[in-house]
Amino acid sequence: MSRILLIAFFLSSQFIQAQVQGKKYYIGTSAFMMANLNQNNPEHPNFYQANFGYQISSKDVFSLEFITWRYYAPLGVKNASGETKIEDKFPGHVAAKGIALAYQRFIYGNWYTALHSAFMDQKYSNIESQQIGSGNQLFLTFRLGYHLEFLSHKLFLEPSIALTHWPINTNLPLSFQIQEDKWPKYQVEPGLHLGYIF
């Protein structure tokens, strides 16, 4: 936790420096928050994300991401249909919330790479939604994407492809760990971020 506070302190000092130098800030989110619109889904993701960033040079951007989500199966489940089989699900769900530090580097024109490192607090609940444990997760994302700007460079959209990996995932209840151990600790997935530059 002390490392996260140190990172937050570093970022706040950089925000002050960026403001003095007149650098661009942005606020943003993930378009995948639209999954929350389906209120009839019994496995509602409760996915919310807010990003606050600044551009320190023409090629370098740092941001803080505040994230919360709920998931019902191991993150590494591979299924082309998009549906998770009942036998692959947890006997309950995981509610996670945390903060990420992200670094984005423009490599050619509007093409960029990014690294996101999220520290998540997790609460494990059974099928009756009673909490049965808690733990932590380090969730890493390696991203390749393209940056598009609209309306006089005020709005942006960033489609991407990402490789996610969670090398640390602690204190899962045994019934959850059995399911988790069946699958890899990585996933390839699309991304779509959007935001407002000011």
Note down, in words, how this protein is organized.
With 198 residues, this protein is mainly beta. The chain has one domain (2-197): Beta Barrel (Porin). It is 14% helix and 53% strand. It contains 2 helices and 9 strands. It has helices spanning 2-21, 174-180; strands at 25-30, 48-55, 60-71, 92-108, 111-126, 131-146, 148-150, 155-169, 186-197. It has an 8-stranded antiparallel β-barrel with strand order 1-2-3-4-5-6-8-9. A hairpin with a 2-residue loop joins strand 4 (92-108) and strand 5. The two termini are 31 Å apart. Residues 1-22 have low confidence and may be disordered.
Low-confidence stretches: 1-22
Tally the helices: 2
Structural class: mainly beta
Largest sheet: 8 strands, antiparallel, barrel
CATH architecture: Beta Barrel
- Strand order within the widest beta sheet: 1-2-3-4-5-6-8-9
Order of helices and strands: HEEEEEEEEHE
CATH topology, anyone? Answer: Porin
Strand content: over 45%
Terminal CA distance reads 31 Å
